[in-house]
Structure formats: structure tokens, C-alpha cells
Design brief:
- The protein is α+β, with helices and mostly antiparallel strands.
- It contains 20 helices and nine strands.
- It folds into three domains: about 100 residues, lambda repressor-like DNA-binding domains (434 Repressor (Amino-terminal Domain)), CATH 1.10.260; about 150 residues, no CATH class; about 130 residues, Beta-Lactamase (2-Layer Sandwich).
- The strands form two sheets. Strands 5-4-8-7-6-9 form a six-stranded mixed β-sheet.
- A hairpin with a 4-residue loop joins strand 7 and strand 8.
- The mean pLDDT is about 85.
Length: about 475
């Protein structure tokens, strides 16, 4: 800015670099460095420059651009110093006298758009929560049921020759081959990718077949081929990415637990007043969470039952949630429930207190919105424990196993007196006398990498594909 203002006032006085330099006692080349922002003058020299130009030192040090042209040149220089521009490997354009204002304005416009797209390509935690909230509300309006995807899954499973029983790995491979894909299990997948599709050579790369839990590999393969069946293109933003992920998960579940068989099973269980997620899970050989989510898809549309689904961490934080039965989920100011803490009195948290966790935990909970019956199963991952809950209003509890339970709790959340505020005596005893550091989950603060597919490292992905393509060519 200082250099721009010196040049501006020099121009107003009609002085050349040589003339001003001679007047203040420095070479024209040194004065040029000052005007181009490459050298900072001493105060004594700045004072002499001001005297010759007829302005004060304060006027030279003012932080306002001296002209519209100067403002353009400064913005252009700043834009070309950003990491976004540096990542392109392009040369720096200098704002010479021959570079017109219109040209600089156009270049600056491109820089602004480049910066905007870079910002939008990164899913900040706030953007991710907003997109999750919009998707959850959209699914609530549909009762979490997507008939179009049900139809696609039904056709794909039927075409592979599957009729009854659990979907086998062989059937999944047949489904892939009918789309022109071969399932290939490798041990060197990009660390950021669950699967990779080579569209050119017709391969779906998956983790090694020896990993525990065969249902996971079936689901991953189905999710991969779902992109092709559902006509997905590269996501244009984080919300689009989330929508596609939901759709491929839904497709995989609809294949592993086909509509007709699932509805028949659940209707029979309802007739017996014995609906249980664990039975639904075991009948189709899937995870407890997959069965709970599939029940969530089908319960309202095919059984006439409103319900809620929760996946909650051991600390009580919500990882995934759905409701159309009136349960008040904990939400932040944006309406997002992910990361919020459920009431300590809810089944989703009280289930962690049990010593024997091999069976489902049943509980009635009285809330300001009414009484709900919940069935909760706990589990663990490599890093933490979690619970999966399916719950319904009291009127629907008669259809579920465990309704005879005598376990009951009362929750008045979001009233903080329910379970958030400490007892008055404890607060008085320890307020101001304690200090604690929170266990910070780094991923909460970190945006997803801004690759073509959010969360996947483009370089690692393309190097993986190139390596396998080269190996296959050599064979």
C-alpha cells in the first residue's frame, strides 16, 4: 500500500523515478523497489519523499488505496499470493502500465470465483451439519422410505437369480458382473477409500476378503455398483455427496434385505406381537445396525408404525438419528442433531450401564412429548462403544418384544435440570475449585479433503488405479 501511495503522489506531481530519486538522494532503482513493495524505507527517507511530493508521512502511510487502479493492482497481487493460486503452478502476472483496467478486473473476477469454489469444495463442520439436517428432514417427510430405490434393488436382485434367504457373496458378484464389473479384493486400497471403481477396466476394488464380517464386504460391493445403477455422477457439493451416500447405503440394505421378504417377515412378527431387531438381523445375516435401519425404512410405510432410530456413542453423542414419531431429538441452533448429547435417562445411554450386553435392553421413557418404548443393543468398534436404538410411542409398544419390561425412566430434557446441571450441593462445593481438559475429537474440527470425491485423496486414488492397471497389463 505504501508503494502504491508513493507512486500515486509521484504521478500527480509529474515526476519520474529518476527525478524523485535525485531529489531525495537515492537511486531510481531503489525507489522502484519501494513502489513495488519489495523494500521498506526508513522513516527519515519517507519524510524526505513526503516533503518533495508535498504530502505528510501520515498520508503516505494511509491504508486506503489511493485510486481505483491501485485497488485493483493490490487485489491482484494479494490473490496471486494465496495457496489456492500457488497450487495451480501458474506464473505471476504483474500489473504493468500496458495491462488495462478491464483485463485486471477480469483476472480478479476469476480469482474471486476460484476462491469461492475452493471454499465450497471443503465441507466445514458447520456445512456438514447443515447438509445432514436438510437430508434428515427430507427423509422424515418421506418416512425414510425411497420406493424408487426399492424398485431398482428388487430388479437387480431378481436378475441375479436370488429368491429367498440371505444374499450370498456369489450373488453379489453376479450382480456386479451383469453390470460389467469384476469384484477384486486388494490389500493396498487408498487409506481414505472404502472401495474404488475402475470404470475403464470394469473393476470394483474392495478390501481383502479375509477381513472379519462378510456382511461388510457384501454391503461395500453393493454400494459401489449402486453408483452405476442409480446414475450417479461426480458430486457437485457436499450435500450432493451426502445424498449419494445415503442412496447407495439404502440400495445395499434393500438388496441384502429384499422388500418383499422383509415386509413378510415383519408383518408376521407384528401379527405375533414379537417384532425384534435381533430376529430381523439374524434372518438376513446382517449387522444389528443394518437391520435397525432397514426396519426404519419399512415400519411406517408397510406396518403403520411411526418410530425413531438412534446411533449414540459411549459418551452420549448422537452419530445418526431419525424420527417421525414425535420424539424430541437434541439439536443445536442450526437444527442439527449430530454431535449433540441425548438425555442420560434415555435407553440409548442407560444400556451402557448393564454388565450383560448380549441381549437387547428394553425400557419405557416418560418425556414431555409422551411415553416411548425403546429397544437398545450396544456394540464396540476399534476405538469406542456405541448403542443402536429403535423406539416407538407407547401405543405401538404392543407389537414389540420386551414390552413387558418393568424398566422405566423419566426425562424432562431439554430442561437442563433433568440431567445436565449438577446438584446444587456439588456445584457449590466444586465451582471455581476444579479445572478439566476436554477430550477433543480432532475430526470435529477438520474439514473433509476437497478432492473430486469428498474425503478421498485424488493423488492416492489415481496412483492406486495406475498401479493396478499397469500390473494387469503386465500379466
Amino acid at each position: 500500500m505504501l508503494g502504491q501511495r508513493v507512486r500515486h503522489f509521484r504521478g500527480l506531481r509529474g515526476l519520474t523515478l529518476d527525478q524523485l530519486g535525485a531529489a531525495v538522494g537515492i537511486a531510481a532503482s531503489q525507489l522502484s523497489l519501494i513502489e513495488n513493495g519489495r523494500k521498506e524505507p526508513r522513516l527519515s527517507l519517507l519524510s524526505r519523499i513526503g516533503e518533495v511530493l508535498g504530502v505528510t508521512v501520515a498520508e503516505l502511510l494511509d491504508d486506503a488505496p489511493p485510486s481505483e487502479r491501485a485497488a485493483l493492482e493490490l487485489e491482484l497481487a494479494a490473490a496471486q499470493q494465496t495457496s489456492v493460486y500457488a497450487s495451480l503452478g501458474l506464473p505471476v502476472i504483474r500489473a504493468s502500465k500496458t495491462l488495462g483496467d478491464d483485463t485486471i478486473t477480469a483476472i480478479i473476477g476469476l480469482h474471486r470465483e476460484l476462491a469461492r469454489r475452493a471454499r465450497e469444495a471443503i465441507a466445514t463442520p458447520e456445512e456438514a451439519r447443515r447438509a445432514n439436517t436438510e437430508l434428515r428432514q427430507s427423509m422424515r417427510a418421506r418416512n425414510n422410505y425411497l420406493p424408487d430405490i426399492e424398485a431398482v434393488a428388487e430388479r437387480a436382485v431378481r436378475a441375479a437369480g436370488h429368491t429367498v434367504g440371505a444374499l450370498t457373496h456369489r450373488t453379489v458378484s453376479t450382480m456386479a458382473s451383469q453390470l460389467g464389473f469384476e469384484l477384486v479384493h486388494v490389500g493396498d486400497l487408498p487409506h481414505s477409500a472404502r472401495s474404488v471403481i475402475d470404470l475403464e477396466n470394469g473393476r470394483v476394488y474392495l478390501p481383502p476378503a479375509s477381513i472379519p464380517g462378510g456382511h461388510g464386504l457384501r454391503s461395500m460391493a453393493l454400494q459401489a455398483i449402486a453408483h452405476r445403477l442409480l446414475g450417479h455422477t461426480q458430486p457437485v457439493g457436499y450435500a450432493d455427496f451426502l445424498r449419494q451416500r445415503l442412496e447407495i447405503n439404502y440400495f445395499a440394505a434393500a438388496c441384502l434385505m429384499p422388500l418383499a421378504q422383509s415386509v413378510d417377515f415383519l408383518r408376521a412378527a407384528k401379527a405375533d406381537r414379537n417384532i425384534a431387531v435381533e430376529d430381523f438381523r439374524d434372518a438376513f445375516g446382517v449387522t444389528h445396525e443394518a437391520a435397525a435401519l432397514r426396519l426404519t425404512n419399512l415400519a411406517t410405510e408397510h406396518l403403520g408404525i411411526e418410530l425413531h432410530f438412534l446411533r449414540v456413542g459411549g459418551d452420549g453423542a448422537v452419530y445418526k438419528a431419525y424420527e417421525n414419531d414425535g420424539l424430541r431429538l437434541p439439536v443445536d441452533v442450526t437444527g442439527s442433531t449430530e454431535g449433540q448429547f441425548v438425555c442420560r435417562q434415555w435407553s440409548a445411554r442407560r444400556a451402557f450401564q448393564r454388565t450383560n450386553r448380549t441381549t437387547e435392553f428394553y425400557q419405557y421413557t416418560d418425556t414431555p412429548e409422551g411415553t416411548f418404548f425403546d429397544s437398545t443393543q450396544t456394540g464396540t468398534t476399534d476405538s469406542a462403544e456405541f448403542s443402536i436404538t429403535i423406539g416407538v410411542p407407547f401405543v405401538h409398544s404392543k407389537w414389540f418384544r420386551g414390552r413387558e419390561t418393568a424398566v422405566r425412566a423419566t426425562s424432562t430434557c431439554p430442561d437442563e435440570n433433568c440431567c445436565r446441571r449438577p446438584a446444587p450441593g456439588l456445584a457449590q462445593r466444586w465451582s471455581g475449585r476444579a479445572w478439566s481438559s476436554a477430550r477433543l475429537h480432532a475430526h470435529i474440527l477438520s474439514p473433509l479433503p476437497s478432492g473430486t470425491f469428498p474425503g478421498v485423496d485424488d493423488r492416492e486414488l489415481y496412483e492406486f488405479l495406475e498401479a493396478h492397471a499397469a500390473a494387469d497389463a503386465a500379466d
